[in-house]
Amino acid sequence: MIYIDRHFIENGNPTFIIAEAGVNHNGDINTAKKLIDAAIYAGADAVKFQTFKAENLVTEYADMAEYQKNNIGREYTQFNMLKRLELSFSDFMELKEYCKMNNMIFLSTPFDFESADFLNKIGIDAFKIGSSDLTNVPFIEHIAKYNKPIILSCGMANLSDIEDAVFAIKQNNNDKIILLHCTSNYPADTDSVNLRAIDTIRSAFKVITGYSDHTEGITIPLIAAARGAAVIEKHLTLDRDMEGPDHSASLEPFEFKFMVEKIREVERALGDGIKVCRESEIDTMKAARKSIVASRNIKAGEVITFNDLDFKRPGTGLMPKFYKEIVGKKARKDINKDEQIDFGVIQ
Questions:
Q1: 76-102: per-residue pLDDT in tens?
Q2: Is residue 265 part of a domain?
Q3: Helices 89-101 and 29-42 sit at what angle, rounded to 10 degrees?
Q4: DSSP 8-state code for residue 338
Q5: 20: enclosing H helix or E strand
Q6: In terms of domains, do 144 and 171 share one?
Q7: CATH code for position 285
Q8: CA–CA distance from 171 to each of 7, 9, 132 (Å)?
Q9: Judging by beta carbons within 10 Å of its beta carbon (0-12, 13-18, 19+), is residue 339 exposed, middle or buried?
Q10: Which one, of 317, 312, 338, 342, lies nearest residue 329 by Cα?
């Protein structure tokens, strides 16, 4: 069993929806608080940020990814870009307290050992490990030792990469694992999403599975929910036109709210899987189903043959499947054409 705060996360349970604020605060704590407010407004279960110190994360000469160059519209080194998007540890303490005051679960992805230790120290409920660290086994082992739930994104990965990461976690006596299928493009195109991989990951590793979405719009997360994703993560921004690497692949608050509402609708539609006649169907059943009726006027004492029977609406009488129980019996009384025949009128 995996609990994140008050939420029980399990395949088949209500979807745990994470509003990925990430670095969409653009390095400003007040914008970060507005993102928390937006996550609350949208009905997300948790809001998640990214915690790092640029000097611990990247070399000063590392180039930006192509999507980062395209989305920002200019070129820096990764170090310069990340330094502009960095919040301090004290900022994150304030954001965690702000979430607590507003009954919102605070999560953050650490990108270096120091940040991971800090998040553990302030009592984060679960750790998110991004796809970029899926093959960073020493880092994964370090976080696993905290013995807290780990949500691990699986972008840019083959099954063998995921297997190594899962093994590293379990070797450190931590089996609280949630794997998120992911395509690491921002935005990701529909043809690259491969949602059937959710089923593949669930089958291969026998763990809770979900989906981290980077497509535009809400269609793909809804399909993921319908396929049983236990966790769905989606980027949230205040304005897609803001400068930054992830805004263009994010939802604005009203869109995120609409997505949450539709995911909850999907969950209601999925139901419990037990096939029974629903109470709401009973009236339709009576009107639409058929009953056994007489195909002619039958006199009392006559032996009823199959040709004496017909099957017509409404479905308020004996169901047609019981016709063999009628054929060969005598009529107890006169039966008029189209009158329903049940066990009470035969002998």
A1: 788 888 889 999 999 999 999 999 999
A2: yes
A3: 30
A4: T
A5: strand 16-22
A6: yes
A7: 3.90.1210.10
A8: 26, 22, 21
A9: middle
A10: 342
Structure tokens at 338: 């189209």
The answer to whether 42 touches 250, Cβ cutoff 8 Å, is no
Q: Which of 197, 171, 200 is nearest to 182 (CA)?
A: 197
Q: How far apart are CA 310 and CA 341, in angstroms?
A: 10
CB 229 within 8 A of CB 213: no
Segment holding 256, helix H or strand E = helix 253-270
Q: Output the six-digit token pair for 264.
A: 């909850």
* Strand-strand pairing, 309-312 and 291-294: antiparallel
Task: Pull the structure tokens for residue 109.
Answer: 């992805």
Residues 19 and 116 in one domain: yes
Give the structural domain span for 108.
11-270
β-strand partners of 50: 109
- Give the chain's domain count: 2
Residue 179 forms beta bridges with which residues?
152, 209
Does residue 246 surpass a pLDDT of 80?
yes
Instruction: Classify 146 as helix, strand or coil.
Output: coil
Tell me, yes or no, whether 81 and 222 share the same domain.
yes
What mean pLDDT, rounded, does the chain reach?
A: 95
Mean pLDDT of 298-308: 97
Q: What is the pLDDT, as a whole number, of residue 279?
A: 94
* Helical H segments across 73-158, by residue range: 78-84, 89-101, 113-121, 137-144
Question: Same domain for 77 and 196?
Answer: yes
Rg (CA), the chain: 30
In a domain, 208, yes or no: yes
CATH number, domain containing residue 121 = 3.20.20.70
% helix, strand, coil for the chain, step of 5: 40, 20, 40
103 DSSP assignment: T
For residue 108, the SS3 value is strand
pLDDT at 72: 67
Rounded distance, CA 338 to CA 130, Å? 69
